[in-house]
Amino acid sequence: MLFFLSKGYRVVAHDRRGHGRSEQVADGHDIDHYAADAFAVAKALDLKNAVHIGHSTGGGEVARYVARHGEPAGRVAKAVLVAAIPPLMLKTDDNPEGTPMEVFDGFRTALAGNRAQFFRDVPSGPFYGFNREARRP
């Protein structure tokens, strides 16, 4: 963001629900709600022909935002996905390479048990390529 600001671009970042200074709501933590929330921000600021950039979950959010809200409102010039998750990560019959539901159940259990510890544990592995054969210790 600082790079784009230094080049004279207007930069807008939103706190995703349940993150940062946003209200810590218990529902709506899915890509559809995240995209709708981003659309509400873009609409409130009357952004037009914006470049939407998303990393990780934000990439899935941008993909869904563009698909659902982009063209009709004329608010998207380009989309940039950086190491993005797909909008559907769950293993299903239509997405056999997805992540099994048990993994998400474990995340929910860990979050409910100790939210702060969960956010310490996730980046320490196995995450961010931690379990790849070619990783360096």
From TrEMBL:
Which named protein is this? AB hydrolase-1 domain-containing protein
Superkingdom classification of source: Bacteria
Q: Which PANTHER family match?
A: HYDROLASE, ALPHA/BETA FOLD FAMILY PROTEIN (PTHR43433), NON-HEME CHLOROPEROXIDASE (PTHR43433:SF3)
Q: Name one Pfam family in it.
A: Abhydrolase_1
SUPFAM superfamilies, per database record: alpha/beta-Hydrolases (SSF53474)
AB hydrolase-1 domain segment(s): 5-116
Entry-linked InterPro entries: AB_hydrolase (IPR050471), AB_hydrolase_1 (IPR000073), AB_hydrolase_fold (IPR029058)
According to its UniProt entry, this protein's organism is Mesorhizobium ventifaucium
